[in-house]
Amino acid sequence: MAQVLTDAYVWIEEVEDLKVQEVAKFAVTEKNRQASWHLKYKCVVQGWTPVVCGINYKLIIEARHDGVVTKYEAAVYEDCSGEKQLNYLKPFKPILTGST
């Protein structure tokens, strides 16, 4: 059973799944097109999604740019017909928790 996060998101247990890989590659390709970036997709590190009429993906992706591998956070919506829309792809900044 997938672990449920707040706001009804569930972890994607199989980030190697071909569909998850396709969505991640789309995110990198679309950001390259929109912003004239030159990222090269590497892998999905983790992801989570809610299920609606379509799927919202939130993914942590590794991509290579000028020989440097960096993590990015992507949000992609895929509607019921399979049409995908990149909501954002930005450098990943982990949220640090704990007391100071």
Question: What would a concise description of this structure say?
Answer:
This protein has one helix and six strands, in the order E-H-E-E-E-E-E. It has 100 residues and is α+β, with helices and mostly antiparallel strands.
What are the SSEs and their pairings?
Layout: E1 10-11, H1 18-35, E2 40-49, E3 51-52, E4 54-65, E5 68-79, E6 84-91
Antiparallel strand pairs: 1-2, 2-4, 3-4, 4-5, 5-6
Mean pLDDT: 88
Strand content: over 45%
**In this structure, how is the largest beta sheet organized?**
6 strands, antiparallel
Strand tally is 6
- Contiguous helical run count: 1
- Helical content, roughly? 10-25%
What sequence of helices (H) and strands (E) makes up the elements? EHEEEEE
Instruction: Kindly provide the radius of gyration, computed on alpha-carbon positions and rounded to a whole number of angstroms.
Output: 14 Å
Identify the notable features of this structure and list them briefly.
100 residues, 1 helix, alpha+beta
Could you explain the architecture of this structure?
This protein has 1 helix and 6 strands. The protein is of the alpha+beta class and 100 residues long. Strands 1, 2, 3, 4, 5 and 6 form a 6-stranded antiparallel β-sheet that branches. The N and C termini lie far apart (34 Å).
